From TrEMBL:
Keyword Ligase listed: no
GO molecular function term, any single one: cyclic-guanylate-specific phosphodiesterase activity
Membrane recorded as keyword: yes
Organism annotation: Gordonibacter massiliensis (ex Traore et al. 2017)
Protein name as it appears in the record: EAL domain-containing protein
Domain EAL stretches: 23-279
UniProt lineage: Bacteria, Bacillati, Actinomycetota, Coriobacteriia, Eggerthellales
Protein keywords: Membrane, Transmembrane, Transmembrane helix
């Protein structure tokens, strides 16, 4: 276009310009939030069908801006990774998760609530002192390390197998539990997965949603659940939205469920109330 000089042809469509503009606006918001802890945390309770109560929760990050409104994590987390502030996001989430665990356990000393999981990104595992810094947060909040759960995706492991393995072994020795996130979406390297100490394997919601009443699929789900069970991991299904899906999972012997059918992600106060109410019934 005009005024760019002959060597800089403009190949940007208005849509592309718009996307570039939005990305840089998000980068500014993320950078600011990282500096001052401007994120918020939501907790989505995890239902145990066998225990008929909420037994855990996943911490999910939220970012709201006056101008851009609520920015979805699928959009701002990749930006936080690219601009190098993802460790600030994780530290913020870890602190909130540990504070929740502390408050909940203090208020409900007889509770069977097991803990909160925090999502870790692939790029974080290159940090040398990651295990120490995470354990320091746990210690500062005075909670048992076994109440903290770290969610790792297959793609994070594949990007950095040695670093992830070392981190997991170190943390596991201190009692921290691990969830394998988004199972079934990437290139599953089953043998590698099975070597790592995952307490819970989280089946991606796309897997559940593609499952029908197909007899073979039910059988396959059952075998998958039993197989992971034999290896010492439980299966948790994400994205449970209907009673039909819940029934399907019951048939497969998959007891841990997370989804809008049970609860949306909630503020920490709301989550505490919902979890406590489920324990009283
Ligand atoms: P994820 O780890 O797979 O988290 C589950 C996502 O599914 C959440 O979306 C949750 O709100 C949504 N969800 C839960 N139940 C249902 C359901 O029944 N139906 C549907 N349609 N969705 C359901 P959310 O909060 O938008 O997060 C999206 C992704 O952003 C997460 O996927 C995770 O990859 C990433 N993310 C969120 N918070 C963090 C964080 O603190 N750190 C990192 N590294 N990533 C995060
Ligand atoms: Ca997750
Ligand atoms: Ca997931």
């Amino acid at each position: 276009s005009k005024g760019r000089g002959p060597n800089v042809p403009c190949v940007c469509t208005p849509d592309m310009m718009e996307a570039i503009h939005r990305r840089s606006a998000i980068a500014d918001v993320v950078r600011r939030a990282a500096e001052c802890g401007g994120f918020t945390v939501k907790l989505q309770p995890v239902w145990s069908e066998s225990e008929r109560r909420f037994v855990a929760a996943e911490a999910l990050c939220r970012l709201d801006d006056d101008e851009l409104g609520s920015i979805p994590p699928d959009e701002f987390i990749p930006v936080a990774e690219q601009i190098g502030v993802i460790s600030d996001v994780t530290r913020f989430m870890l602190n909130r998760a540990c504070a929740f665990i502390r408050t909940y356990r203090d208020a409900h000393p007889d509770s069977t609530f097991r803990g909160v999981s925090v999502n870790f990104s692939a790029v974080e595992f290159i940090q040398d002192d990651l295990a120490e810094s995470v354990l320091a947060v746990v210690e500062r909040h005075g909670i048992p390390a076994s109440c903290l759960r770290v969610e790792v995706t297959e793609s994070a492991i594949i990007a950095n197998p040695d670093a992830v393995r070392a981190f997991m072994e170190d943390m596991h020795a201190h009692g921290v539990r691990f969830y394998l996130d988004d199972f079934g979406t990437g290139y599953s390297n089953i043998s590698m997965m099975l070597e790592l100490p995952f307490d819970v394997v989280k089946l991606d919601k796309s897997i559940l949603w593609s499952a029908t009443e197909d007899e073979h699929l039910t059988e396959f789900f059952g075998l998958l659940t039993a197989g992971f069970g034999a290896m010492g991991s439980q299966i948790l299904s994400e994205g449970v939205e209907t009673q039909e899906q819940r029934g399907f999972l019951n048939e497969c012997g998959c007891s841990l469920m997370q989804g809008y059918l049970f609860s949306r992600p909630l503020s920490p106060d709301e989550a505490a109330a919902v979890i406590a109410a489920s324990e009283e019934e």
